[in-house]
Amino acid sequence: MSTEDSAVAFSAGVQQPAFGEGACGIGRIDYANIGRLATERRPTPALPPHARDARSLDSAAARCWTAGLLALCATGTRANRSIVDVEAWATSADGSMRLSPIPTSSDDNETELVRVDPTSARQVIGGFGAALTHSSAAVLEGMPESSRNALLRELFDPAGDVRLTVLRIALGGSDFVVDPAYTYDDMPAGEEDWDLEHFSTAADDVSLRPLLRRILEISPELTIIASPWSPPAWLKDSGRLDGGQLRDDDRAYTTYATYLSRAVADYSAAGIPIDFLTVQNEPQARFPDGYPGTDLPVRDQVRLIDALGPLLDRSEPRTEILAYDHNWSLHPADAEGVSDPETEYPSDVLTSSAAPWVDGVAYHCYAGDASRQSELHDRFPSVGIYVTECSGSHGPDEDGDHIFSNTLAWQARNLLIASLGNWASTVMTWNLALDPVGGPHVGGCATCTGVVTVDDTGSVTRNAEFYVLAHAARFIPPGSTALNTAEEGDSALSHTAFRTPSGTVVLLFNDAPDPRMTKVIVGSTETHLNIPGRSLITLRFGSTR
User: Fold this and answer.
1) pTM for this one?
2) What keywords are annotated for this sequence in UniProt (predicted)?
């Protein structure tokens, strides 16, 4: 069996007689419980009587049985482990450390043990980023030019401090706009434009497209994901941007498909190619709060993609379609009063006539959890998984310290590590930049936070989202490969790992309030570090020496 075949079988939970019997010498190991990246506390695989307390044993066999990881079984005892350059960085929920270097050591007094299988191979990473909403663009445009350029380089320069590689934009208005939302073909009440004679994306030239071009100058390989919040009101049964469905008329679907393909083509002509298009932001949010939104049931999304797919294939073949673009699970508020709540929306699209046109599925984080991604992957292993929106938020009376603490802890555990551990290739937050009161916005979220906050003097505050993204984007470039990880015992750590051009990168989050002395083993190498309470860690194993 080749290394590649071993990695595939390992991930699928298949027994590995070559490693389980020959290398460890303790019989065959059942890998079924550790085929998926650990993102929550999981039971340790059952041990034989002589290996019940693996931590107290110096036996390579007991350690191999406990971890169930190919690399450790193949390399044996600690005496054979290599010495590598290891670096670590931490951001703590109390804000005392913000992407700060922390020491590693050779002390062997750990209370936590995490193992990484460097021979495994899971999803390929697409990147990390946020949304350049119209509000974000306006806030950034309001900065002094030199400050704005410095911030954009900090965020997007491939050699910079953060190294974001993905941006999401709204095609037309969303809740995060300066002025009332618009589409690319608004008409006076009672008028229609079936030939799209009045279609124009020129409104995006005010601030959005100029900023996108500037960011592309800094990061030419930037991936752009586009999403509409609503068709023009005259294409909807409600006659409004906020709520309603596409008119039940074949002309509505063919016209809207043409509208979307023209929007993509306009952006491409403006030097801003669109890599991915979702056909509707949050299609199950049936009652948007004063901002554009569309109730798009599965049958309607399928109907629209069936019309749109061939158009994009002919005119903009670079642009791939992502289905769904909503929560991991149906939000209870979106199920109210609905006879068929369509709780398996992504799967329903992927088993429909639209499936050949769909490259992946987009998720948001506001209901359910990331394990839903693994459920989808198990059914559709060739379909890409993208987390395209997850905003920090807070109570109306919370102070800045609490907002930072709670957002960092929640996003590190549930968005970053859990999403990546459940097959996401791309992970994004929401607004790239907002003002100090979480705006500007029209309707929608009044307590959302951005990656950065920019005040009216141009001063920048780097929020928890900044550090969550930086811990991944700075160290895990596109093209990196996710690896299998596992822990021993009842761990307080969330973890995931990646093979990158510069070595193996491990992400850890200590959810406990107290520090945890932790050993991390990557194949034949190991390191030890004291992880502060409620802190996010990036650990990089570099070149062997």
Assistant:
1) 0.86
2) Glycosidase, Hydrolase, Signal
